[in-house]
Structure formats: structure tokens, C-alpha cells
Amino acid sequence: MAVLFxxxxxxxxxxxxxxxEAMARAEELQDAEEARKREFPGEKNGSQEIDxx
Length: 53
Fold this sequence. Notes:
The chain has 53 residues and is an all-alpha fold. It is built from 1 helix and no strands. The chain starts with a helix and ends in a 14-residue tail after the last helix.
């Protein structure tokens, strides 16, 4: 039973660590996007508008 308990707890900690890393990456991307929007406020969806005419 102790071995099973060890693997369950280890799996929980691994999932938690992975989730924390993913959240940190998402926050970094969000911060970068907000900084870009502050720097270029008129730009839409991160792409430059092209006049088709």
C-alpha cells in the first residue's frame, strides 16, 4: 500500500508542477500581448491592415 500511495502522491505533485508551469507561460504571453497593445494601440489582432484598393 505504501508503494501505491507513493506513486499517487508523486503523480499529483507532477500534475501540479505542470499546471503551474503552464499558468506561468500563459501569464507571460498575456503580459507580452498587453505590452504590445499598449505600444501599438491602433493595431488590430496583431496584424497590420493592408489597403486592398
